[in-house]
Design brief:
Number of domains: 3
Largest sheet: 4 strands, mixed
Distance between the termini: 7 Å
Order of helices and strands: EEEHEEHEHHHHH
CATH topology of the largest domain: Butyryl-CoA Dehydrogenase, subunit A, domain 3
Oligomer: single chain
Strand content: 5-15%
Structural class: alpha+beta
Number of strands: 6
Shape: rod-shaped
Length: 285
């Protein structure tokens, strides 16, 4: 199933953007692009995504960017503490107050230039929170798509049931139509010859038995009921695939038994609907 989820978060001067995209695929394939310094978390992040996706090609992109307004200088708190203590000792020993100006601090290494562009470890929590939100957005989108596909499948299965009802009605007309055609043909071949009514009815009865599709129609409807039960479950899987094969088998048998043009056309319509259902089932997780 297709889906998309994204999330943004901020920590001090660092911003995090997470995007997850999913497209349909038979098996689950997860690919992650992580920022420098966080590659060791890939297995853990894939585990999180796997808990939300059972199939499909999933691409996860995580970016960390440093704000342009980030301070280039920072105070070394440990050195500043030591320097302040030493200054206090000197004032106590000398008995006079020492005035320190900003330019004097440059030689003490208290103020350092923040040259590192690598994100700090604290960004890991921001990444995890953003990933969780992006996965939630992905699931919401897939849920909406899944519901739409579910509704479409149900509509098509209802259509199949309506068509098979029509086929059942048309099949009841076939013995009568066969009787008419047979009588006309016999009249042409044996003009003036009396036709044995019992023999004619036997022939029509045999023909009607060969055309009888009651069993196929009953099985088709039963399979549709089972499909309703499966669609109500969380996973459709192989059960649905098997039923689709059986539904197609019954339609093929119905079409092969009939000589009725409308039944043949209706069988084609059912197979068309079933093929669309099969395609939709392949997309559902």
């Amino acid at each position: 199933m297709t889906g998309f989820g994204s999330a943004d978060a901020q920590w001090e001067s660092w911003s995090c953007q997470v995007e997850i995209r999913s497209v349909n695929q038979r098996f689950l394939d997860i690919r992650c692009r992580l920022p420098l310094g966080f590659q060791t978390l890939e297995a853990d992040f894939k585990k999180q995504i796997k808990a939300a996706c059972t199939r499909g090609k999933v691409d996860c992109s995580i970016r960390l960017e440093k704000g342009e307004g980030d301070e280039k200088l920072k105070l070394n708190h440990e050195r500043a503490k030591i320097f302040n203590e030493l200054l206090g000792e000197f004032e106590e020993l000398s008995g006079r107050k020492v005035n320190v100006e900003a330019r004097d601090l440059s030689s003490t290494n208290i103020i350092e230039e923040n040259k590192s562009g690598e994100p700090p470890e604290e960004c890991e929590k921001v990444i995890r929170d953003s990933l969780a939100k992006a996965i939630e957005g992905l699931q919401e989108m897939k849920l909406r798509e899944g519901q739409a596909m579910h509704d479409d499948i149900k509509t098509r299965l209802v259509s199949c049931e309506q068509i098979v009802n029509k086929i059942e009605e048309l099949s009841q007309e076939e013995p009568g139509l066969y009787r008419e055609r047979l009588q006309e043909r016999l009249a042409q071949l044996q003009e003036g010859t009396k036709i044995n009514p019992e023999r004619l009815e036997q022939e029509i009865a045999l023909f009607a038995d060969r055309l009888d599709i009651t069993e196929e129609v009953v099985r088709f409807r039963t399979h549709l009921e089972h499909m309703d039960d499966i669609l109500a479950q969380r996973e459709v899987g192989k059960k649905a695939e098997f039923l689709m094969q059986e539904l197609n088998r019954e339609v093929n048998t119905i079409a092969s038994k009939s000589n009725h043009a409308e039944i043949s056309q209706s069988s084609v319509e059912i197979k068309s609907e079933l093929e669309k259902v099969r395609e939709q089932l392949q997309n559902i997780e």
